[in-house]
Write a structure and sequence with these properties.
The complex is a heterodimer of chains A (about 375) and B (about 325). Chain A has a domain of about 230 residues. Chain A is about 75% helix and about 5% strand. Chain A is built from 15 helices and four strands. In chain B, helix 2 runs parallel beside helix 4 and helix 2 crosses helix 11. Chain B contains 13 helices and no strands. Chain B is mostly helical and about 325 residues long. The termini of chain B are far apart. Chain B has a single domain, classed as ABC transporter involved in vitamin B12 uptake, BtuC (Orthogonal Bundle). The chains are: A mainly alpha (about 375), B mainly alpha (about 325). The interface between A and B is large, with 50 and 53 residues.
Amino acid sequence: MSKETESRQREPFARVIKRAEMAAGKIALLRLMAVFLSLIAGGIFIGCVGQNPFVIYGTIISGACRSVMAFQGTVKIMIPLLISSLGITLAFKMKFWNIGAEGQIIFGATCATFFALFCSGWNHVILVIVMFLAGIIGGGIWGLIPAFFKVKYNTNETLFTLMLNYIALHIVSYLRDGPWMDPGSQGFPKIARFDKNASLDKLFGVQFGWLIALILVVVVYVYMKYTKQGYEISVVGESQDTARYAGMNVRKIVLRTMFLSGGICGMAGMIQATGSDITLTSSVAGGVGFTAIIIAWLAQLNPFSILLVSFLFSVLEKGSSVVQSNYGLSTDCADVLQGIILFFILGCEFFVRYQFQFRKNTDRTDKEG
Amino acid sequence: MDIVIKFLVAAVGAGTPLLFGTVGEILTEKTGHLNLGVEGMMSIGACIGFMVGYYSDNFFLAILASAAAGAFGAFIYAMLTVTFMANQNVTGLTLTIFGIGFANFIGIFVLNQSPEGTLKLPANITAAMRSVSIPGLSSIPVIGPLLFSYSPFVYIGILIAVGCAWYMNHTKAGLNLKAVGENPGAADAAGIQVTRIKYINIILGGAICGIGGVYCSMIINGGVWISDNVGGLGWIAVALVIFANWQPAYAILGSFVFGALRVLKYYIPQSILPFPIAFYDMLPFLITALVLVISSMRKSGRINLPAALGQNYFREER
């Protein structure tokens, strides 16, 4: 900055500077504003396809909560979303970009399905516990593979976990078309419906996965906030060098966290397969792994916010199925709205940390004068 | 011999949408931005391009519209990640979810309005996108079908890829682009306008992806609109970027190899190689994962992964 005048002359129209830390209330207000703006943008979109946005929004909310059955449906959608968002949170807190929740869900579900299909005669409680463990270990292994190559060779985890999604998907289609094909389906490629003994019990009309999901919210919160391991995760996420300097075994932490992250996602898969679908299909994850990333990010990786956001997303999804039957707009409307909301939130986060500083006109007149 | 030629021709066809997606993503990643929204940009391009083609019956307009639509998706991404410094992975994924949702939504919306109950491209555009037939050349045995028998998309794709290779490796703008992807701070210090270069190339990349999308909606299903017509090809394109080592010229070869992998299952009789179908579907992803691991193991200087990939550039922290 020795040539002050020269730098002034070249000063851009607007530049970005960091701002002092914002008050929590102000941040909340900013985010609410972003959500509000996104709803307006979504409303304009709905208006463009010739519907009244207020009616559509109203239908989405009432459609998801209008009856006990509708609400149960909403909760059913929420279970895998909530659990896998919690799983992703662990990895993202460590800045390990686990895009592979989809694959971890699928592989966890696949491992659990093995027991559901071939050990259905076991004692119900034991079988359910074994299936849970199988789901966790299956998903955990699927998370461990990219973590192993990351710590060993620094392999890009985003791309690797992405590839593993599709590998898991095609493992399921292999099993469906071959070894696990339902013998009673007369050649139609599908996996048999699970025995009643091998499916999850219901609690208040919904499979009891919702209770596990709620417990998990608290567990993940406590784990991240109050345990040594949780602390290690955030240190590694902030700076691997700092962690190493503090004497932490970064490799071990990355491997352990990814096993847990994948394991939780695998559990989500197991719960979806044995609780909701009562069979294994190639759409057991069905995009949940990707939506969960959006949820985790929207909720700022806070388990309780994840609970709220995943509920709202489930309302959106359930409600848009009612919109489809009432107004003929397809359920893809939910994806469009989710996208718009997140675009606005992503943009708004910028204003939490930075601000624009515009070029002052006086600078130029000074120079010219 | 006949079946080999048929197989190769099919491989080129199956690889073409991948070629667009890959070249578009290479341009994007060279700026240091990993855009996971390829699938989304292709979907938006597929939808808008198809609809414009459906209503205007003009092949050229359809391609132009698909490129504009892809560019629009990329513009959202660029605004959020370049200017607003949002997380690239999350922004890209959101673009994908938004794009697929948008395409399917609009597709079903228009479908519901159409009197026939299906959306089929009109006659002129179908004729325009049909495989070319050059009198004399196309009828040469072997060479004819291998070189002169494709839809115009194939030639457009190869032209774009060659053009991008030339742009990246032989122009000053291309050199600046690579400098930005390697070390934006140094590039900025050298007087390169980092933000502008990022915007231009990300948007250009999105436009190319959009054209790849319209291939999916117009060609793959024979000119009939079907939901989810991109069907994961955008993700394969993201993988192919690694396989092609961030070189547009390799992307041509890579896409056709991956195209071959995609159609392999129809040409290899089960009696010769008793692999299950799912194995062939898995192959592209398995190979990419292997390439990814092997290239990170080798750690030699031959890997073109932009050093600043995935990191946003904040000028005051350079």
